[in-house]
Write a structure and sequence with these properties.
The protein is an alpha+beta fold and 348 residues long. The protein has helices spanning 6-16, 47-55, 63-68, 96-138, 145-155, 180-194, 225-239, 257-275, 288-293, 299-310, 318-330, 335-342; strands at 24-28, 33-36, 59-61, 75-82, 85-93, 162-170, 199-204, 207-214, 244-248, 281-283. Helices cover 48% and strands 17% of the residues. A five-stranded antiparallel sheet has the order 2-1-5-4-3, with helices on both faces. A five-stranded mixed sheet has the order 7-8-6-9-10, with helices on both faces.
């Protein structure tokens, strides 16, 4: 157990010496003094701590015993443990009969500080692990499949669940761009504090993704992507003080689902922003056809798709035909409504 470091040792010394009138020494697992009320002793090897660590129990050293041990002082020495593992030792300097009563109190305080630090470290490590999992999911490559399956088992994540990716982008002024990464990370922490089971990842200086999932068999409003979009947008508005856009991809099950959902969310944002730069929310489900066709806007596929409309370029009635076609699409391909809008008979 390597949780005990100089910073934590000093915190233990500072906090405990506020409540007891004796010097406190904190040693690592090798008996070296990491922090002490007597700063001159920092770095020394503590003989009493070595005995407490070796025996894994409290060791008292009186004046007579101290004279026989190099550099030792009278006092009480107790091993420190976190999670059942000894990680260091604690020493209270003074006549054993006087300091004994404080020994367990100080040890309890020290171990509580260490346990809190260990928990924080574990949560931070778990958070990084979850973020790496999300990043690898949205950048899915077949070669990473075995590793992703192992990660999913550790996190209790099932690829049979419906998966839905949201893309959140901060819309910052140019002079604030330098702080964008810190802003998006702060927002990520706030969201995680509200939804501790959330799977999130920072994907750019001002971008974050959130991976939502639910049981494929779920029915009702909670299984509807739009309802989940509304719930998340409410949460983000409450936690984000900066202008932002939120985009939702397609919901799918399977190992490749998150990657597809992420790409569809990003494409929906790009297309939606091009149509209305002032819009804040974008959804794959509101522009499914443009998103699905977006990959066909270049190359031979684009040329083939444009051939029917390109034929109008050589027709002398092209302006009228284009107007008719635009009106027809605008009225959901309804002949009667199109004719009425153009002021002509439906059989014209």
């Amino acid at each position: 157990m390597h949780i005990l470091d100089t910073g934590l040792a000093q915190e233990i010394v500072t906090r405990t010496m506020r409540i007891i009138p004796f010097n406190i020494n904190v040693m690592d697992a090798n008996g070296s003094i990491l922090a002490s009320g007597d700063h001159a002793r920092v770095g020394e090897l503590h003989a009493g701590a070595l005995l407490a660590l070796a025996k894994k129990q409290t060791v008292e050293i009186d004046a007579a015993s101290a004279r026989k041990l190099h550099g030792a002082h009278p006092g009480v020495n107790l091993p420190l443990a976190v999670g059942g593992q000894v990680c260091g030792a604690l020493g209270l300097s003074g006549i054993p009969d006087e300091v004994r009563q404080f020994g367990e109190l100080v040890r309890l305080t020290a171990e509580m500080i260490l346990e809190q630090a260990a928990l924080a470290q574990e949560l931070q490590s778990n958070s990084r692990y979850r973020e790496a999992f999300v990043l690898n999911l949205i950048r899915y490559e077949p070669a990473t499949r075995p590793e992703l399956e192992r990660w999913a088992r550790r996190l209790g994540f099932s690829f049979d669940r419906m998966q839905l990716v949201f893309l959140l982008e901060l819309q910052l002024e140019q002079d604030a761009a330098g702080h964008a990464l810190a802003d998006i990370q702060r927002l990520q922490m706030r969201i995680l504090a509200r939804r501790q089971d959330a799977l999130t990842a920072t994907v750019g200086p001002s971008e974050m993704v959130l991976l939502d999932s639910w049981d494929l068999r779920s029915k009702g409003a909670d299984s509807m992507p739009q309802k989940r979009m509304e719930a998340l947008s409410t949460l983000v508005r409450e936690e984000c003080e900066l202008p932002f856009t939120l985009s939702m991809g397609i919901a799918l099950p399977g190992m490749e689902a998150a990657a597809v959902s992420y790409q569809s969310a990003r494409t929906a944002a790009r297309i939606g922003r091009g149509r209305d730069p002032g819009q804040q929310y974008f959804s794959y489900y509101e522009m499914a056809l443009p998103v699905l066709l977006s990959g066909l806007d270049t190359g031979w596929q684009a040329r083939q798709l444009r051939m029917p409309i390109a034929r109008l370029a050589n027709d002398k009635s092209r302006a009228m035909l284009r107007t008719t076609l635009d009106t027809w699409f605008a009225h959901d391909e309804n002949s009667a409504a199109t004719a009425h809008a153009l002021g002509i008979h439906r059989n014209t």
